[in-house]
Write a structure and sequence with these properties.
Oligomer: heterodimer
Order of helices and strands of chain A: HHEEEEEEEHEHEEEEHEEHHEEEEE
Structural class of chain A: alpha+beta
Number of strands of chain B: 0
CATH class of the largest domain in chain A: Mainly Beta
Largest sheet of chain B: none
Largest sheet of chain A: 16 strands, antiparallel, barrel
Distance between the termini of chain A: 92 Å
Radius of gyration of chain B: 19 Å
Largest interface: A-B, 53 and 37 residues
Number of helices of chain B: 6
Strand order of the largest sheet of chain A: 1-4-5-6-7-8-9-10-11-12-13-15-16-17-18-19
Number of helices of chain A: 7
Order of helices and strands of chain B: HHHHHH
Structural class of chain B: mainly alpha
Radius of gyration of chain A: 35 Å
Amino acid sequence: MKKFIAPMLVGATLATAAYAADDSLKAEIAALKVQMAELKEAQSKVNYEALKSQLLEVKAHDAGDNIKWDIDFRTAYDIMEHKLGASSASMIPAPGFPSPTYTMGAGAAAKTNKNSVWTNKLTLGMAAQPVDNLVFKGALGFYKTFGQSSVGDYSMFQDFDWYGSSKPQGENVIRLKEAYFLYFGEAGDMPYTASFGRRPSTDGFMTNLRADNAHPASPVGHNINMEFDGASFKFDFEKLTGISGFYAKICLGRGFSDTAGSYSWDFSSAYGADYANPDMDLAGLLIQAYDDGQYKVMANVFQGWNMMGMGMNVNMSVADAANAYAQSMTFSPTGFLDVGDMRGASLSLQVNGIGNEINDFLDDTIFFASYAMNQTDPSNNAANDISMDAVSQGNMAAALIAGGVPAAQVPATMQGMLDSMNGAGMLGSQEKETGYSYYVGVNMPGFFEADRIGLEYNHGSKYWRSFTYGEDTLAGSKLATRGDAYEIYYNLPLVAKNLTAQIRYTYMDYDNAGSDMFFGQTGNPAGLMGMMPYVESASNLHLSMRYRY
Amino acid sequence: MKKIFSILLASFLLVGVMSSSAFADAAKGQKYYLKFLKKKTGMNGAKFATQHTQSEWKALFANDSEKFISTYSEKYPNLTKFFSSDKFKSKYSEHIADFCIEYASDSGNVPSC
């Protein structure tokens, strides 16, 4: 009996339990269904577009509302050689820096100087865009020779404002290379920009290729390549004219500010103007006449006022009463003064891809040609203060008379000799002088996927004067050359775009002195006072590795 | 001196031969945009690139630019022939993609002077 009852009890219990479990499961499923429906309803109310927009806002804020940095760091090794010609006189610098005194010595024989220099160059780029139509851009520059150096004992102009972070210095200093804001606006169908600050004015159009920079900075690199403070106003005429890429940009700037600063040694008014060189100003018009991605035509015209030249105290002595020309001179720089105005222009064409789909090599080859000119307008103010003691004056007068000059004409002759050394004029001339330069180059694919080979040539005439003080060629600006300059370079990506290498060889064959100098007597094509030795040729082998991110 | 120079030159060339990596080039992409697309899209490169985020551009240019070609052929029928060409797929698209990604709406890239 028990045998029957026990299984029956078990069966009844299980059946009851199963029934109860089925009810509970049903209840749970029903509850889950309700929850699912609630979730679906809640989900349907979520606005994904709004979420996406919020996420983008966060990303944009993160990327654009703070300063965004980029790094450009290069280590380079430069080997330079300068060949100096013989001269009728040579300078012997005397101790006394920073106001050196030079004594004109005997003629110098031709000689060759060789040196090699290691450098580190760091540019920290900055960018911020708090709103769509306003941008800030800047760059901090550090460029220095390895270790402690003797640079500071030699050069008066080493850290000059126009190239302070574009030439290697002897000191560990980070300088401001660029800082400007840019406002974007639209006047009808004409977009425009307005910008003030320290300009992106180095390694511009065409010269960006030898610098291995993908994008050129603002001006035409052929005649302007230097650090500069000012403003620009760009007007985009493409929509109005239908001409691809057509824009004009007015550029204004000041290369020298005449101000005594505060607490000046002569107790003049704070930041008052008290200097021999008034403000040096420049106004230019940069025109991109056409750019369709393959053909690009650019031009510029500019006018500079109150260009600066170096003045000197010149002390002459004539030791020999039998020879009026047996002079010796001692002179020391006195500072800058206004030597006149200068104007210039350029016209450049770049072809990015030769022909149309002829082959990949030509499609990837860039060719450019450019012509530039300059014209001086000298003020003819005397630049030098000349003095001669009484004994020397007597010796000179006696020597002139002994040489056949009538006594009555001696004072005028002596004055004429002194005047010829007053340093008046621009580029060593008291006439308006015109200089010109042409510049051609090709940048083509190399042996691998993204390496590039470049060849460049430029020629400058006797009175050619460029504003290429910021050009990064240690042996001297090749584009300032009064003569011929040849260059070959090879750019090789090592690790994607982030680590690259460059080998570059530049040779400059000078026809005249005064390339890459200031605008007064130091720019004389015959050498300072027509007597000083000058570099006849120079070469620069440059090897570098560069990190960018 | 000569020794240092020789070592430097040798290491320079060695690193160069050992490395050399292929990559797309945004500058080339910009050139191709100006040359082939700008006139027909009616907008400059910066505006074109900011139409999408970086991830959106990457998705559009994935699988041989499949989605980019279909989307933009529809938007700009006069570019269909160009987008469908072998040259576009084999030569131009990777650089145009790199350009679009570099200047995308969320790239944080700031236009300059």
